[in-house]
Amino acid sequence: MREGDTIVSLATIAGESALGVIRVSGKLCKTLCKDIFNITTPTPRTATVRNYLSIKGKTVDQVLLTFFENGKSYTGEQTLELTFHGNPLIANQILDDLIKRKCRLAEPGEYTKRAFLNGKIDLSQAEAVAELISASSEIEIEIANHQLRGSLSKRLHVIQSGIINLQAQFEASIDFPEDEIKEKNVGEILTIVKPLKSAITQLINSTNIKSTLSQGIKISLIGPPNVGKSTLFNNLVHENRALVSKDSGTTRDYLSKELNIGGYKVELFDTAGIHKTTSEVEQLGIQNSIRLIDDSAIVLLVFDSSLPYPTEFYNSIRKEIKSKAIIVVENKNDLKREISSSDYPRNSKVITTSMIEDGCSENIISEIEKVLSDQFKINPSSDILVNKRQSNHLVDALAHLDEVVSLISSSINEEIILQELKLSIECINSIIGRTDNEDMLDQLFQNFCIGK
């Protein structure tokens, strides 16, 4: 990546549309305004309609141009945004012309990388940009927006300040022997370290939640054969995805479908009915069903309410559902009731329905929403979730603080303790942003889309 170049790329999706946007960033922007639009001194942040004249003097399109001066743009550099009629042929003509005028095509994430290098955002905010673009649920968008506004950065700065204050104490004890850390100070220092470790641990623990939200919260329909799981699945996804038959054991393997429920991305699974069978194929499907319970956050236990409670079925999944959120769906309530709710797993939510009724899935969706909001109590304005890269650095920072506690308790030389504190600070710097690690930056930004 050559930071001194003027870069250009399409900022909107390629293809026909009402409008398209091309973004230019770098020192040539003012020159381009003069050469293309005959504007010697562009007014910053003011939209102007002009004809785009190519290097050969041909009018390519009538465009809306907006100029941003140094320090006042997304990248922190001179920036030019051109809005044109969304024809791919026009886009390519403008891009080709700008390249002839000594611009070059931007690399993935290069605009955001320049914003980081120019101090417009820190590294955690840059990652929030990518997460905002790739978010597949409303809750992920909310979380990314708050982290783009610096919520993670602020939390990390508080932790870092606490470590720096400790570092200052140990440096003072080295420079001024009369300030040497005495045994009576050990308890006070440990009191300072404890909340720092707790804050870091809390962030580390949030990684699994973030991963689950990104990948999709798994919800499995589990039950004996022929209780209506596949019909329920079709109703919930509003598609005839699963085969439905009066014959038991129709579903031999699981089906899945991604949905958005209550702002959460979920993956719903229809599974093979669990029962005793001599069929090898059915046994494989049943094994898959039981394995899916382990991966699921929510399990919908579907029963035929016109039959007695299937004790044999429940005994085969008792261990797997022990720590799961359970919603019991009593299906076929249009028939005479035989099932007894007293046999259900403790703390189960119970819904009585019939798949032959219109709107039967609405109550189930509503109950799933309640369980999701209870299981994943996320307040995007205050709860901070870190990604895997950030978590790895936090794990290292915590390890160094653990070593500090061990060294202090053992009355080890203060210079060694000081080194561990410095290493912990460096780990946090790697999250907020170090500009001297080019390989790490290249690896991070190459996962961004072109034009961002």
Task: Report strand %.
Answer: 15-25%
Helical stretch tally: 14
Helix content: 40-55%
Strand tally is 12
Assign the structural class, choosing from mainly alpha, mainly beta, alpha/beta, alpha+beta, or little secondary structure.
Answer: alpha/beta
Straight-line distance between termini: 15 Å
Shape assignment: flat
Largest sheet: 6 strands, mixed
Q: Would you mind describing this structure in some detail?
A:
46% of the residues lie in helices and 16% in strands. Strand 1 (7-10) and strand 2 form a beta hairpin. 36% of the residues are buried. The strands form 2 sheets. A 6-stranded mixed beta sheet has the order 3-4-5-2-1-6, with helices on one face. The longest helix is centred in the middle third of the chain and has 33 residues, at 183-215. It has 14 helices and 12 strands. The protein has helices spanning 29-37, 88-100, 110-117, 123-134, 138-148, 151-175, 183-215, 229-237, 280-295, 311-317, 360-375, 388-409, 414-432, 438-445; strands spanning 7-10, 19-25, 48-53, 59-68, 79-85, 104-105, 217-222, 255-261, 264-270, 298-304, 325-331, 349-352. It is an alpha/beta fold.
